[in-house]
C-alpha cells in the first residue's frame, strides 16, 4: 500500500524518484506525486490522480537540476484518489513536505485540535494532518528543530506509517520514520536513497539499512545517517546489509506482464524453494527453522495457520498436508478474523503465519496476538527481512524471488512447496510417515519443477484459446475436492481479481447445496479432476453439471477418459500423488485467469482497487 522513494546525492533527483516510483507502482497506483528541492531551497510539488505515467506528463522545472527530492505512489485510504489527496502533502506554511504509507488512526482528533489552532486542510487525508502536526511543534517552540518536531509528532500518532519528510529551511536533510510499514535506506557513494523496498536503488548500491519498527533517521550528505528511537531518541547503530536483489529479478525480461513472467518462473521458484532443503539422495529434508524447534511442533496441541488471500488458500492446503502426513491437528484462520475474535491460544500452540510480502497488517497483528499469548510463532514469508519474518520465533523463506504482479502466482506455489516440506519433515520425525513412503514422496516432490515446465509447455497455447471463448463471461464457478478444493478457491480468486469477472470457488460436493441453482448454459465451471483424489465422485459432479447444461472446463490427468468425454474443454496435466496436484493444477488456472483478463483489456499487473501489500486493516 503506497510506495515511497526519496533521494539525496549528485544525480538528477527527478529521474531517480520517477524511475523508483515506477518500480514501486505495484504497491499502489491510484495517484502519484513528487517534490523536488531547488538549489535555492524552494520546493516544487507536482502531483496527480492516476499513474506515474500521468505524473511524467506534468512538466517539471527542476528536472535535471534538483539533487534532492521524494515521491509517492498511492493506494487511497483517506479520501478518494484525486489530485488534492495525492502525496506529497505540504504544511500550512508551505515549508514541510511529507509522503506517507500507512494509516494514522487518530488523525481526526489531531485534525480537530489543529483546526482549533487555526490550521486549514486542503485534502481529506490523514497525511496532511501529520505534516501540519510537525509544523505545529516547530511553531509552538522555536527551539524545536525539524527532526525533533517529526519525532514529537510521531509520538502523538498511532496507526501504521512509513514517512519521508523534507523541510525548506533544512536543505539537504531527509527525515524518515517507520512503524508497521517498511522503509529501506540505500547507502551509495555520496548519495542516499530511501524506498519502501530496495528495488528503486538496486542498480546504484548493494548496501542498505532496513529501518526497524519505531525508529527514525535523519539523513544528509554532510552528516550521514543518524538513527534514533522514536519514543525516547536513543541513538541506534545502523546495521548495513548487503542486498541480494538483482535488477534482472525486478524487470519483465521480455514478458508482456510481470504476472506472465512470474507464472513462467515457477519451475525455478519451486526449485529454489527446495534448494538446500530437499536432499533426495541423502533421503533428508533439511529445514533448520523446523529442526531447531521440532519438539515444539511435535508436542503442539495444534498448529494454527493464519494468513490472508492467496496465502490463506495455501494455508488450507497446508492443513490437508500436515494432518495427512504428520497427523498434527491444524486449524486455518483468516488473520483478520483471528485477531478480533478473542481466540483461545496457549503456549502449547504453534502458529504459522503465511505471507508473501511479510507486511500484511492483519497477519502481523494476529501474529503479535498469538505471541503475546505464548504460542510459538513460525513464519513463511517471501520477502526477506520483512516485518513478519522479523517478529517470528523461526521460519522458512520461500525464495520465490520478487513477486511484482499484484495477483500472487509463484509465491503461492512456493508456499505450497514449503508446507509440503514441513508436512513431510514432521511426519518423518514423529513416525507417521514411514521411510518408504517418505522416500517416494520426496522423489516425486523433487520432480515437480519438471512437471510444471511440462504443464507450461503443453497448456499455454491451449489455455489462450480457451480464454478467448470466455471473454464475455459474467460468472464462473471453480470446483475441486480434497486438496483441490483450496486450489479451486485460488483459481476463482485469480480470475476475479484481475479480470473482474465474478467467480466462486467451492468444494465440488457442496455444489448441490446451493450453487447448482446458478448453473445453466451460460455458466462456465472449471473443475479440477485429477485421477488421484475422489475421481469417481468428481465424475458424478460433472454429470450433474452437464445435466444442467453448464460449460465444463476440466483440468484432468493425461489420458483421462470419463471426465474428458463430458467436458466442453479439457486441459491435461501430468499425474501426481494427490498432495502435489494443487501445485500442478494451479498453473493452467493462473494462465486462464491471465489470458481472460488480457483479452478483456484489463491491467493485469495492477488490477483496480488492489495493491500488492495490504499494510492497512
Ligand atoms: O503478502 P500476503 O501473502 O500476506 O498477502 C495476502 C493477500 O493480500 C494476497 O494474497 C492477495 O490476496 C493477492 N492479491 C492474491 O493474488
UniProtKB/TrEMBL annotation:
Ordered alphabetically, the record's keywords are: Aminotransferase, Cytoplasm, Glutamine amidotransferase, Repeat, Transferase
The record's Gene3D superfamilies line, in alphabetical order, gives:
Glucose-6-phosphate isomerase like protein, domain 1, Glutamine Phosphoribosylpyrophosphate, subunit 1, domain 1
What residues form the catalytic site here?
Answer: 2, 612
Quote the catalytic activity from the record. D-fructose 6-phosphate + L-glutamine = D-glucosamine 6-phosphate + L-glutamate
Q: Name one GO biological process term.
A: amino sugar biosynthetic process
Q: What does this protein do?
A: Catalyzes the first step in hexosamine metabolism, converting fructose-6P into glucosamine-6P using glutamine as a nitrogen source.
Q: Which PANTHER family does the record cross-reference, listed alphabetically?
A: GLUCOSAMINE--FRUCTOSE-6-PHOSPHATE AMINOTRANSFERASE, ISOMERIZING (PTHR10937), GLUTAMINE--FRUCTOSE-6-PHOSPHATE TRANSAMINASE (ISOMERIZING) (PTHR10937:SF0)
Q: What is this protein called?
A: Glutamine--fructose-6-phosphate aminotransferase [isomerizing]
Organism for this UniProt entry: Chryseobacterium daecheongense
